[in-house]
Amino acid sequence: MDDCEQSDSSEEFYDACEDQVEQATCSEMDIEQSLVVAELAINYFFDNRFEEARTLLKPFADSSLYHSMGNAVFAFLEAMLTFEHIEEASSALRKCIDLCQRYRKKITLTASIGNTFKKRNFNQLTDLECHAELCLAESLLMNALLTFIGDENLTGLIRGSLQVRQCFNCYRTCEQIMKHRNWSSNSTALKIHFNSGVLMGIGTFNLMISLLPGRLIKLLQFIGFTSDRSDGLRDLQKGHQENGLRQILCKLSLLGYHLMVVPMISDRQSTEHLKLCDQILTSQLAKYPSGVWMLFFKGRYELVTGNLKAAEILLLWLSCVQRNWPSAENYARQLLDKSNWSRSIYAYQLAAIKLMSSDNLEVDKLMLEVVTFKQKIAGKSLPMEKFMAKRSLRYKIQNGQLVLPLIELMYLWNVFKFMGQDYQLADGILQIIDADLAKFNSMEPSDLLYSTSHSYYADNRALCLLLRGSCYKQMGKLALALQDFNECILQTGIVEDHFIIPYAYYEAALCHAAENRDLAVSMLHEIKKKYSKFALESRLYFRIHAALMDLER
Question: Cβ(181)–Cβ(125) under 8 Å?
Fold first, then answer.
Protein backbone atom coordinates (compact mmCIF):
# COMPACT_ATOMS: atom_id res chain seq x y z
CA MET A 1 0.00 0.00 0.00
CA ASP A 2 1.11 3.54 -0.66
CA ASP A 3 3.12 5.28 2.06
CA CYS A 4 1.04 8.43 1.77
CA GLU A 5 -2.26 6.68 2.50
CA GLN A 6 -3.66 8.03 5.75
CA SER A 7 -5.05 6.00 8.62
CA ASP A 8 -8.66 7.08 7.95
CA SER A 9 -8.67 4.89 4.82
CA SER A 10 -7.46 1.79 6.68
CA GLU A 11 -10.97 0.46 7.39
CA GLU A 12 -11.90 0.77 3.72
CA PHE A 13 -8.84 -1.31 2.88
CA TYR A 14 -9.71 -3.91 5.52
CA ASP A 15 -13.33 -4.14 4.28
CA ALA A 16 -12.27 -4.54 0.65
CA CYS A 17 -9.75 -7.27 1.52
CA GLU A 18 -12.19 -9.09 3.79
CA ASP A 19 -14.74 -9.25 0.96
CA GLN A 20 -12.14 -10.98 -1.22
CA VAL A 21 -11.18 -13.34 1.62
CA GLU A 22 -14.80 -14.41 2.15
CA GLN A 23 -15.12 -15.17 -1.57
CA ALA A 24 -11.96 -17.29 -1.48
CA THR A 25 -12.67 -19.48 1.52
CA CYS A 26 -14.96 -21.81 -0.39
CA SER A 27 -12.05 -23.41 -2.21
CA GLU A 28 -8.29 -23.67 -1.96
CA MET A 29 -6.80 -20.23 -2.43
CA ASP A 30 -4.61 -19.45 -5.43
CA ILE A 31 -1.49 -17.32 -5.07
CA GLU A 32 -3.19 -14.02 -5.94
CA GLN A 33 -5.90 -14.55 -3.34
CA SER A 34 -3.37 -15.66 -0.72
CA LEU A 35 -1.38 -12.47 -1.31
CA VAL A 36 -4.50 -10.40 -0.66
CA VAL A 37 -4.99 -12.22 2.64
CA ALA A 38 -1.31 -11.86 3.52
CA GLU A 39 -1.48 -8.12 2.94
CA LEU A 40 -4.52 -7.84 5.17
CA ALA A 41 -2.78 -9.92 7.87
CA ILE A 42 0.25 -7.63 7.73
CA ASN A 43 -1.96 -4.59 8.24
CA TYR A 44 -3.67 -6.29 11.17
CA PHE A 45 -0.30 -7.19 12.65
CA PHE A 46 1.19 -3.69 12.52
CA ASP A 47 -2.08 -2.25 13.82
CA ASN A 48 -1.69 -4.40 16.99
CA ARG A 49 -4.48 -6.78 15.89
CA PHE A 50 -2.22 -9.79 16.38
CA GLU A 51 -4.81 -12.50 17.04
CA GLU A 52 -6.91 -11.38 14.09
CA ALA A 53 -3.84 -11.71 11.88
CA ARG A 54 -3.15 -15.23 13.15
CA THR A 55 -6.78 -16.29 12.82
CA LEU A 56 -6.84 -15.07 9.24
CA LEU A 57 -3.85 -17.18 8.23
CA LYS A 58 -4.25 -20.46 10.12
CA PRO A 59 -7.10 -22.10 8.12
CA PHE A 60 -4.96 -22.45 4.99
CA ALA A 61 -1.49 -22.61 6.59
CA ASP A 62 -1.01 -26.21 5.49
CA SER A 63 -1.89 -25.68 1.82
CA SER A 64 -1.56 -22.01 0.80
CA LEU A 65 1.92 -20.62 0.22
CA TYR A 66 1.43 -17.17 1.74
CA HIS A 67 -0.83 -18.35 4.54
CA SER A 68 1.91 -20.73 5.61
CA MET A 69 4.56 -18.05 5.16
CA GLY A 70 2.66 -15.47 7.20
CA ASN A 71 1.93 -17.94 9.97
CA ALA A 72 5.64 -18.88 10.14
CA VAL A 73 6.73 -15.21 10.15
CA PHE A 74 4.49 -14.34 13.10
CA ALA A 75 5.70 -17.40 15.04
CA PHE A 76 9.30 -16.46 14.23
CA LEU A 77 8.89 -12.86 15.40
CA GLU A 78 7.34 -14.00 18.68
CA ALA A 79 10.20 -16.45 19.25
CA MET A 80 12.87 -13.85 18.48
CA LEU A 81 11.32 -11.20 20.72
CA THR A 82 10.46 -13.38 23.71
CA PHE A 83 12.91 -16.32 23.45
CA GLU A 84 9.86 -18.50 24.05
CA HIS A 85 8.06 -20.99 21.79
CA ILE A 86 11.25 -21.66 19.82
CA GLU A 87 10.13 -25.18 18.96
CA GLU A 88 6.71 -23.96 17.76
CA ALA A 89 8.39 -21.40 15.51
CA SER A 90 10.79 -24.02 14.15
CA SER A 91 7.88 -26.34 13.47
CA ALA A 92 5.94 -23.64 11.59
CA LEU A 93 9.02 -22.83 9.54
CA ARG A 94 9.67 -26.49 8.70
CA LYS A 95 6.08 -26.87 7.49
CA CYS A 96 6.48 -23.73 5.38
CA ILE A 97 9.76 -25.03 3.93
CA ASP A 98 8.10 -28.34 3.04
CA LEU A 99 5.25 -26.50 1.32
CA CYS A 100 7.69 -24.32 -0.63
CA GLN A 101 9.57 -27.43 -1.72
CA ARG A 102 6.30 -28.91 -2.96
CA TYR A 103 5.48 -25.86 -5.09
CA ARG A 104 8.91 -24.82 -6.38
CA LYS A 105 10.35 -26.03 -9.69
CA LYS A 106 12.01 -29.42 -9.37
CA ILE A 107 15.52 -29.43 -10.86
CA THR A 108 16.85 -32.80 -12.00
CA LEU A 109 20.54 -33.61 -11.76
CA THR A 110 20.83 -33.47 -15.57
CA ALA A 111 19.17 -30.06 -15.71
CA SER A 112 21.37 -28.82 -12.86
CA ILE A 113 24.52 -29.84 -14.76
CA GLY A 114 23.14 -28.25 -17.93
CA ASN A 115 22.49 -24.95 -16.14
CA THR A 116 26.20 -24.65 -15.36
CA PHE A 117 26.97 -24.46 -19.09
CA LYS A 118 24.06 -22.42 -20.40
CA LYS A 119 21.86 -19.59 -19.17
CA ARG A 120 18.74 -20.80 -17.43
CA ASN A 121 15.40 -19.87 -18.99
CA PHE A 122 13.40 -18.39 -16.14
CA ASN A 123 10.37 -17.83 -18.40
CA GLN A 124 9.67 -21.54 -18.03
CA LEU A 125 8.78 -20.99 -14.36
CA THR A 126 5.19 -20.37 -13.34
CA ASP A 127 4.24 -17.46 -11.11
CA LEU A 128 3.67 -19.90 -8.24
CA GLU A 129 7.09 -21.53 -8.72
CA CYS A 130 8.78 -18.11 -8.61
CA HIS A 131 7.07 -17.16 -5.36
CA ALA A 132 7.73 -20.61 -3.88
CA GLU A 133 11.46 -20.06 -4.51
CA LEU A 134 11.29 -16.68 -2.76
CA CYS A 135 9.30 -17.98 0.21
CA LEU A 136 11.75 -20.88 0.54
CA ALA A 137 14.66 -18.43 0.76
CA GLU A 138 12.86 -16.39 3.43
CA SER A 139 11.89 -19.48 5.45
CA LEU A 140 15.43 -20.86 5.34
CA LEU A 141 16.79 -17.49 6.51
CA MET A 142 14.43 -17.33 9.48
CA ASN A 143 15.12 -20.95 10.36
CA ALA A 144 18.86 -20.24 10.35
CA LEU A 145 18.41 -17.09 12.46
CA LEU A 146 16.72 -19.14 15.17
CA THR A 147 20.01 -21.01 15.54
CA PHE A 148 21.85 -17.68 15.90
CA ILE A 149 19.83 -16.48 18.90
CA GLY A 150 22.22 -15.44 21.62
CA ASP A 151 25.35 -17.06 20.15
CA GLU A 152 28.05 -14.39 19.94
CA ASN A 153 31.01 -16.78 19.77
CA LEU A 154 32.94 -16.63 16.51
CA THR A 155 32.78 -20.40 16.07
CA GLY A 156 29.02 -20.22 16.44
CA LEU A 157 28.84 -17.44 13.90
CA ILE A 158 30.86 -19.48 11.42
CA ARG A 159 28.73 -22.58 11.98
CA GLY A 160 25.51 -20.63 11.62
CA SER A 161 26.76 -18.77 8.55
CA LEU A 162 27.49 -22.02 6.77
CA GLN A 163 23.92 -23.14 7.40
CA VAL A 164 22.47 -20.20 5.47
CA ARG A 165 24.33 -20.93 2.24
CA GLN A 166 21.34 -22.72 0.72
CA CYS A 167 19.22 -19.72 1.62
CA PHE A 168 21.71 -17.36 -0.03
CA ASN A 169 21.72 -19.47 -3.21
CA CYS A 170 17.91 -19.35 -3.31
CA TYR A 171 18.03 -15.57 -3.07
CA ARG A 172 20.59 -15.42 -5.88
CA THR A 173 18.22 -17.49 -8.03
CA CYS A 174 15.40 -15.10 -7.14
CA GLU A 175 17.60 -12.16 -8.10
CA GLN A 176 18.16 -13.72 -11.53
CA ILE A 177 14.41 -14.26 -11.89
CA MET A 178 13.82 -10.60 -11.02
CA LYS A 179 16.34 -9.48 -13.65
CA HIS A 180 15.58 -11.87 -16.50
CA ARG A 181 12.02 -13.25 -16.28
CA ASN A 182 9.30 -11.71 -18.43
CA TRP A 183 6.09 -11.49 -16.42
CA SER A 184 2.75 -11.44 -18.24
CA SER A 185 0.60 -8.32 -18.15
CA ASN A 186 -1.84 -10.21 -15.91
CA SER A 187 0.93 -10.82 -13.35
CA THR A 188 2.01 -7.22 -12.71
CA ALA A 189 0.97 -7.33 -9.04
CA LEU A 190 2.70 -10.69 -8.58
CA LYS A 191 5.89 -9.23 -10.08
CA ILE A 192 5.83 -6.22 -7.72
CA HIS A 193 5.31 -8.46 -4.68
CA PHE A 194 8.11 -10.76 -5.87
CA ASN A 195 10.55 -7.91 -6.48
CA SER A 196 9.93 -6.38 -3.05
CA GLY A 197 10.79 -9.73 -1.46
CA VAL A 198 13.99 -10.13 -3.47
CA LEU A 199 15.13 -6.60 -2.64
CA MET A 200 14.44 -7.18 1.05
CA GLY A 201 16.24 -10.54 1.10
CA ILE A 202 19.31 -9.59 -0.92
CA GLY A 203 19.55 -6.24 0.84
CA THR A 204 19.32 -7.80 4.29
CA PHE A 205 21.88 -10.45 3.37
CA ASN A 206 24.37 -7.84 2.19
CA LEU A 207 23.90 -5.86 5.39
CA MET A 208 24.16 -8.89 7.69
CA ILE A 209 27.33 -10.22 6.12
CA SER A 210 28.98 -6.79 5.87
CA LEU A 211 28.68 -6.45 9.65
CA LEU A 212 30.67 -9.60 10.37
CA PRO A 213 34.37 -9.40 11.32
CA GLY A 214 36.77 -9.20 8.38
CA ARG A 215 38.28 -12.66 8.79
CA LEU A 216 34.85 -14.23 8.77
CA ILE A 217 33.83 -12.27 5.67
CA LYS A 218 36.90 -13.63 3.84
CA LEU A 219 35.86 -17.16 4.73
CA LEU A 220 32.31 -16.56 3.54
CA GLN A 221 33.52 -15.00 0.30
CA PHE A 222 35.67 -18.08 -0.27
CA ILE A 223 32.60 -20.34 -0.11
CA GLY A 224 30.52 -18.12 -2.38
CA PHE A 225 28.93 -15.38 -0.27
CA THR A 226 29.16 -11.73 -1.27
CA SER A 227 28.63 -8.64 0.84
CA ASP A 228 28.41 -4.93 0.22
CA ARG A 229 26.85 -2.60 2.76
CA SER A 230 26.11 0.12 0.17
CA ASP A 231 24.38 -2.37 -2.14
CA GLY A 232 22.38 -3.72 0.78
CA LEU A 233 21.15 -0.29 1.83
CA ARG A 234 20.36 0.62 -1.79
CA ASP A 235 18.25 -2.52 -2.27
CA LEU A 236 16.36 -1.98 0.98
CA GLN A 237 15.69 1.66 0.11
CA LYS A 238 14.41 0.60 -3.31
CA GLY A 239 12.29 -2.10 -1.66
CA HIS A 240 10.76 0.36 0.79
CA GLN A 241 9.63 2.46 -2.19
CA GLU A 242 8.15 -0.58 -4.03
CA ASN A 243 4.42 -1.02 -3.38
CA GLY A 244 4.90 -4.72 -2.63
CA LEU A 245 4.01 -7.10 0.18
CA ARG A 246 7.47 -6.86 1.80
CA GLN A 247 7.58 -3.07 1.57
CA ILE A 248 6.99 -2.65 5.30
CA LEU A 249 9.61 -5.31 6.09
CA CYS A 250 12.16 -3.31 4.06
CA LYS A 251 11.20 -0.30 6.17
CA LEU A 252 11.68 -2.29 9.38
CA SER A 253 15.06 -3.55 8.18
CA LEU A 254 16.20 0.02 7.50
CA LEU A 255 14.91 1.27 10.85
CA GLY A 256 16.47 -1.67 12.68
CA TYR A 257 19.84 -1.17 11.02
CA HIS A 258 20.07 2.61 11.42
CA LEU A 259 18.46 2.89 14.87
CA MET A 260 19.51 -0.36 16.56
CA VAL A 261 22.57 -1.88 14.89
CA VAL A 262 24.56 1.25 13.99
CA PRO A 263 24.18 2.89 17.45
CA MET A 264 25.25 -0.39 19.07
CA ILE A 265 28.43 -0.94 17.05
CA SER A 266 29.48 2.51 15.85
CA ASP A 267 30.12 5.98 17.22
CA ARG A 268 29.04 7.63 13.96
CA GLN A 269 25.53 8.31 12.65
CA SER A 270 24.69 9.58 9.16
CA THR A 271 22.40 12.63 9.03
CA GLU A 272 21.10 11.42 5.67
CA HIS A 273 20.15 8.04 7.10
CA LEU A 274 18.46 9.60 10.13
CA LYS A 275 16.43 11.78 7.77
CA LEU A 276 15.31 8.63 5.94
CA CYS A 277 14.26 7.06 9.27
CA ASP A 278 12.25 10.16 10.14
CA GLN A 279 10.44 10.00 6.78
CA ILE A 280 9.62 6.31 7.22
CA LEU A 281 8.37 6.81 10.78
CA THR A 282 6.23 9.82 9.85
CA SER A 283 4.46 7.91 7.08
CA GLN A 284 4.03 4.69 9.07
CA LEU A 285 2.79 6.40 12.25
CA ALA A 286 0.17 8.16 10.10
CA LYS A 287 -0.94 4.69 8.99
CA TYR A 288 -0.49 2.85 12.31
CA PRO A 289 -0.66 5.60 14.97
CA SER A 290 -0.82 3.10 17.84
CA GLY A 291 1.38 0.40 16.30
CA VAL A 292 3.86 -0.85 18.90
CA TRP A 293 6.59 -1.53 16.31
CA MET A 294 6.62 1.99 14.93
CA LEU A 295 6.26 3.59 18.35
CA PHE A 296 9.27 1.59 19.54
CA PHE A 297 11.40 2.76 16.61
CA LYS A 298 10.14 6.31 17.14
CA GLY A 299 11.53 6.07 20.66
CA ARG A 300 14.83 4.76 19.30
CA TYR A 301 14.95 7.62 16.80
CA GLU A 302 14.46 10.23 19.51
CA LEU A 303 17.15 8.59 21.64
CA VAL A 304 19.67 8.40 18.79
CA THR A 305 19.08 12.03 17.81
CA GLY A 306 19.59 13.15 21.41
CA ASN A 307 15.99 14.10 22.13
CA LEU A 308 15.95 12.22 25.42
CA LYS A 309 12.76 13.83 26.72
CA ALA A 310 10.81 12.44 23.75
CA ALA A 311 12.32 8.95 23.98
CA GLU A 312 9.68 7.84 26.47
CA ILE A 313 9.47 4.30 25.10
CA LEU A 314 13.01 3.66 26.36
CA LEU A 315 12.26 4.91 29.84
CA LEU A 316 14.50 2.52 31.74
CA TRP A 317 17.78 3.73 30.25
CA LEU A 318 16.59 7.33 30.06
CA SER A 319 16.00 7.21 33.83
CA CYS A 320 19.45 5.66 34.37
CA VAL A 321 21.19 8.36 32.33
CA GLN A 322 19.31 10.99 34.33
CA ARG A 323 20.27 9.20 37.59
CA ASN A 324 16.59 8.94 38.51
CA TRP A 325 17.00 5.65 40.36
CA PRO A 326 13.40 5.26 41.66
CA SER A 327 12.04 5.73 38.15
CA ALA A 328 14.65 3.37 36.68
CA GLU A 329 13.78 0.77 39.32
CA ASN A 330 10.09 1.06 38.47
CA TYR A 331 10.64 0.36 34.77
CA ALA A 332 13.17 -2.39 35.47
CA ARG A 333 10.67 -4.12 37.74
CA GLN A 334 7.97 -3.90 35.09
CA LEU A 335 10.30 -5.58 32.61
CA LEU A 336 11.09 -8.35 35.08
CA ASP A 337 7.43 -8.91 35.96
CA LYS A 338 5.85 -8.60 32.51
CA SER A 339 8.41 -9.59 29.90
CA ASN A 340 9.67 -13.09 29.17
CA TRP A 341 12.52 -12.11 26.86
CA SER A 342 15.31 -12.75 29.40
CA ARG A 343 14.39 -12.87 33.07
CA SER A 344 18.07 -13.37 33.90
CA ILE A 345 19.06 -10.06 32.27
CA TYR A 346 16.07 -8.21 33.72
CA ALA A 347 16.79 -9.53 37.22
CA TYR A 348 20.40 -8.35 36.99
CA GLN A 349 19.37 -4.92 35.65
CA LEU A 350 17.01 -4.42 38.58
CA ALA A 351 19.67 -5.58 41.05
CA ALA A 352 22.23 -3.21 39.52
CA ILE A 353 19.84 -0.26 39.82
CA LYS A 354 19.08 -1.06 43.46
CA LEU A 355 22.83 -1.23 44.20
CA MET A 356 23.35 2.20 42.58
CA SER A 357 20.65 3.67 44.80
CA SER A 358 22.14 1.95 47.90
CA ASP A 359 18.94 -0.06 48.30
CA ASN A 360 20.29 -3.54 48.99
CA LEU A 361 16.95 -5.06 49.99
CA GLU A 362 15.99 -7.86 47.61
CA VAL A 363 19.37 -7.74 45.79
CA ASP A 364 20.51 -11.13 47.16
CA LYS A 365 17.32 -12.75 45.85
CA LEU A 366 17.65 -11.06 42.45
CA MET A 367 21.25 -12.18 42.06
CA LEU A 368 20.21 -15.78 42.70
CA GLU A 369 17.51 -15.40 40.03
CA VAL A 370 20.14 -14.24 37.52
CA VAL A 371 21.71 -17.70 37.68
CA THR A 372 18.42 -19.58 38.08
CA PHE A 373 16.80 -18.03 34.99
CA LYS A 374 19.89 -18.33 32.78
CA GLN A 375 18.62 -20.12 29.70
CA LYS A 376 19.88 -22.06 26.71
CA ILE A 377 18.44 -21.52 23.25
CA ALA A 378 19.06 -24.36 20.79
CA GLY A 379 21.67 -25.67 23.25
CA LYS A 380 23.54 -22.37 23.50
CA SER A 381 23.79 -19.91 26.40
CA LEU A 382 23.18 -16.21 25.82
CA PRO A 383 26.55 -14.40 26.14
CA MET A 384 25.10 -11.47 28.08
CA GLU A 385 23.32 -13.83 30.47
CA LYS A 386 26.59 -15.72 31.02
CA PHE A 387 28.33 -12.41 31.73
CA MET A 388 25.68 -11.35 34.23
CA ALA A 389 25.70 -14.76 35.91
CA LYS A 390 29.44 -14.32 36.52
CA ARG A 391 28.77 -10.87 37.90
CA SER A 392 26.18 -12.31 40.29
CA LEU A 393 28.81 -14.78 41.55
CA ARG A 394 31.27 -11.89 41.94
CA TYR A 395 28.63 -10.10 44.00
CA LYS A 396 28.60 -13.06 46.41
CA ILE A 397 32.41 -13.34 46.51
CA GLN A 398 32.72 -9.60 47.23
CA ASN A 399 30.32 -9.82 50.17
CA GLY A 400 27.32 -8.24 48.48
CA GLN A 401 29.21 -5.59 46.50
CA LEU A 402 29.88 -4.79 42.83
CA VAL A 403 31.76 -1.88 41.31
CA LEU A 404 29.54 0.41 39.20
CA PRO A 405 27.37 -2.46 37.88
CA LEU A 406 24.73 -0.26 36.26
CA ILE A 407 27.21 2.09 34.59
CA GLU A 408 29.04 -0.96 33.28
CA LEU A 409 25.76 -2.12 31.71
CA MET A 410 25.17 1.33 30.23
CA TYR A 411 28.59 1.08 28.61
CA LEU A 412 28.07 -2.44 27.27
CA TRP A 413 24.64 -1.55 25.83
CA ASN A 414 26.31 1.51 24.22
CA VAL A 415 24.09 3.96 26.11
CA PHE A 416 27.12 6.18 26.74
CA LYS A 417 27.00 7.60 23.22
CA PHE A 418 23.60 9.16 23.92
CA MET A 419 24.97 11.07 26.92
CA GLY A 420 27.47 12.90 24.72
CA GLN A 421 24.70 15.18 23.48
CA ASP A 422 24.02 16.48 27.00
CA TYR A 423 27.12 17.61 28.93
CA GLN A 424 25.27 17.88 32.22
CA LEU A 425 24.04 14.28 32.07
CA ALA A 426 27.51 13.00 31.16
CA ASP A 427 29.07 15.02 33.97
CA GLY A 428 26.63 13.48 36.47
CA ILE A 429 27.71 9.97 35.48
CA LEU A 430 31.36 11.08 35.55
CA GLN A 431 31.03 12.20 39.16
CA ILE A 432 29.74 8.76 40.19
CA ILE A 433 32.71 7.06 38.49
CA ASP A 434 35.16 9.55 39.99
CA ALA A 435 33.89 8.83 43.48
CA ASP A 436 34.54 5.10 43.11
CA LEU A 437 37.91 5.54 41.42
CA ALA A 438 39.04 7.82 44.24
CA LYS A 439 38.48 4.94 46.68
CA PHE A 440 40.85 2.72 44.66
CA ASN A 441 43.50 5.44 44.70
CA SER A 442 43.16 6.09 48.44
CA MET A 443 46.15 5.18 50.61
CA GLU A 444 43.84 3.90 53.35
CA PRO A 445 40.57 2.72 51.81
CA SER A 446 37.69 2.37 54.24
CA ASP A 447 36.41 -0.74 52.46
CA LEU A 448 38.34 -3.94 51.75
CA LEU A 449 36.84 -4.00 48.23
CA TYR A 450 39.04 -1.02 47.27
CA SER A 451 42.20 -2.34 48.93
CA THR A 452 45.15 -3.51 46.84
CA SER A 453 45.06 -6.75 48.79
CA HIS A 454 41.62 -7.64 47.42
CA SER A 455 41.60 -10.49 44.89
CA TYR A 456 39.72 -8.44 42.29
CA TYR A 457 41.42 -5.09 42.94
CA ALA A 458 42.98 -4.92 39.45
CA ASP A 459 39.76 -6.02 37.71
CA ASN A 460 37.63 -3.46 39.51
CA ARG A 461 40.08 -0.58 39.13
CA ALA A 462 40.55 -1.30 35.41
CA LEU A 463 36.79 -1.25 34.97
CA CYS A 464 36.57 2.19 36.58
CA LEU A 465 39.30 3.51 34.27
CA LEU A 466 37.54 2.11 31.20
CA LEU A 467 34.23 3.66 32.22
CA ARG A 468 35.70 7.05 33.12
CA GLY A 469 37.73 7.18 29.92
CA SER A 470 34.61 6.35 27.89
CA CYS A 471 32.70 9.08 29.69
CA TYR A 472 35.49 11.60 28.97
CA LYS A 473 35.42 10.51 25.30
CA GLN A 474 31.71 11.26 24.99
CA MET A 475 32.30 14.66 26.60
CA GLY A 476 34.99 15.46 24.01
CA LYS A 477 37.86 15.39 26.54
CA LEU A 478 40.04 13.12 24.45
CA ALA A 479 43.34 13.78 26.24
CA LEU A 480 41.87 12.81 29.61
CA ALA A 481 40.15 9.81 27.98
CA LEU A 482 43.42 8.57 26.48
CA GLN A 483 45.16 8.97 29.83
CA ASP A 484 42.58 6.67 31.46
CA PHE A 485 42.59 4.14 28.62
CA ASN A 486 46.38 3.90 28.62
CA GLU A 487 46.44 3.45 32.39
CA CYS A 488 43.77 0.78 32.07
CA ILE A 489 45.74 -1.10 29.39
CA LEU A 490 48.82 -1.09 31.65
CA GLN A 491 46.87 -2.43 34.65
CA THR A 492 48.43 -5.71 35.81
CA GLY A 493 47.01 -8.48 37.94
CA ILE A 494 43.59 -8.84 36.32
CA VAL A 495 42.09 -12.14 37.45
CA GLU A 496 38.86 -12.51 35.49
CA ASP A 497 37.75 -9.42 33.53
CA HIS A 498 40.18 -9.82 30.64
CA PHE A 499 37.69 -8.19 28.28
CA ILE A 500 38.43 -4.77 29.78
CA ILE A 501 41.87 -4.40 28.17
CA PRO A 502 40.83 -4.98 24.51
CA TYR A 503 37.79 -2.76 25.05
CA ALA A 504 40.06 0.01 26.40
CA TYR A 505 42.37 -0.50 23.42
CA TYR A 506 39.39 -0.08 21.09
CA GLU A 507 38.26 3.11 22.82
CA ALA A 508 41.80 4.52 22.68
CA ALA A 509 41.95 3.82 18.94
CA LEU A 510 38.76 5.82 18.39
CA CYS A 511 40.24 8.73 20.34
CA HIS A 512 43.09 8.86 17.81
CA ALA A 513 40.78 8.61 14.78
CA ALA A 514 40.17 12.34 14.28
CA GLU A 515 43.85 13.39 14.16
CA ASN A 516 45.68 10.18 13.22
CA ARG A 517 43.49 7.86 11.21
CA ASP A 518 46.34 5.53 10.28
CA LEU A 519 47.23 5.00 13.95
CA ALA A 520 43.59 4.29 14.79
CA VAL A 521 43.29 1.71 11.99
CA SER A 522 46.57 0.09 13.04
CA MET A 523 45.44 -0.17 16.67
CA LEU A 524 42.09 -1.71 15.68
CA HIS A 525 43.83 -4.36 13.59
CA GLU A 526 46.26 -5.01 16.44
CA ILE A 527 43.40 -5.82 18.84
CA LYS A 528 42.32 -8.69 16.61
CA LYS A 529 45.85 -10.07 16.58
CA LYS A 530 46.65 -9.68 20.28
CA TYR A 531 43.42 -10.57 22.09
CA SER A 532 41.06 -13.52 21.91
CA LYS A 533 38.81 -15.74 24.02
CA PHE A 534 37.55 -13.02 26.35
CA ALA A 535 34.00 -12.27 27.50
CA LEU A 536 31.73 -10.55 24.97
CA GLU A 537 34.43 -10.99 22.32
CA SER A 538 32.21 -10.89 19.24
CA ARG A 539 30.39 -7.81 20.56
CA LEU A 540 33.73 -5.97 20.41
CA TYR A 541 34.67 -7.45 17.04
CA PHE A 542 31.43 -6.13 15.54
CA ARG A 543 32.29 -2.66 16.84
CA ILE A 544 35.84 -2.91 15.48
CA HIS A 545 34.57 -3.98 12.08
CA ALA A 546 32.11 -1.07 11.94
CA ALA A 547 34.85 1.39 12.94
CA LEU A 548 37.21 0.02 10.28
CA MET A 549 34.52 0.33 7.61
CA ASP A 550 34.18 4.02 8.51
CA LEU A 551 37.91 4.72 8.79
CA GLU A 552 39.06 2.81 5.72
CA ARG A 553 36.48 4.23 3.32
Answer: yes
399: which residues sit within 8 A by CB, 6+ positions away?
Answer: 449
Question: How far lies 537's CA from each of 165, 183, 362, 524, in Å?
Answer: 25, 48, 31, 14
Give the separation between CA 338 and CA 377, rounded to whole angstroms: 20
Four-residue CA torsion sign, 49, 53, 54, 55: positive
Phi, psi for residue 341 in degrees, rounded to 5: -60, -55
CA angle 330, 336, 341 (to 5 degrees): 135
d(CA 259, CA 280): 12
What letter would DSSP give residue 30? -
Rg of the Cα atoms in the chain = 25
* Residue 189 Cα distances to 105, 183, 378, angstroms: 21, 10, 39
In 3D space, the residue among 327, 389, 334, 325 whose CA is nearest the CA of residue 357 turns out to be 325
**Conformation bin of residue 361: beta by default, left when phi > 0, alpha when psi is -120 to 50:** beta
Q: Is the pLDDT of residue 24 over 80?
A: no
Amino acid at 236: L
Which one, of 373, 411, 379, 413, lies nearest residue 153 by Cα? 379
* 8 A C-beta contact, residue 370 and residue 344: yes
pLDDT digit string, tens, across residues 218-272: 777 766 677 788 899 999 999 999 889 999 999 999 999 999 888 888 777 788 9
Mean pLDDT score across all residues of the chain? 84
Q: DSSP code of 7? A: G
Burial pattern 199-224, b for ≥16 Cβ within 10 A else e, equals bbbbbbbbbbbbbbbeebbeebeeee
The string of DSSP codes covering 366-432 is: HHHHHHHT--EETTEE-HHHHHHHHHHHHHHHTTS--SSHHHHHHHHTT-HHHHTT-HHHHHHHHHH
Residues 6+ apart with CB under 8 A from 94: 143
**pLDDT score at 498:** 96
Contact 115, 99 (CB under 8 A): no
Q: What are phi and psi of 446, to 5 degrees?
A: -80, -15
Q: What is the DSSP string of 241-291?
A: HS-STTHHHHHHHHHHIIIIIHHHH-S---HHHHHHHHHHHHHHHHH-TT-
Are 41 and 33 in contact by the 8 Å Cβ rule? The answer is no
Q: pLDDT-derived band of residue 38, with 50, 70 and 90 as boundaries? A: very high
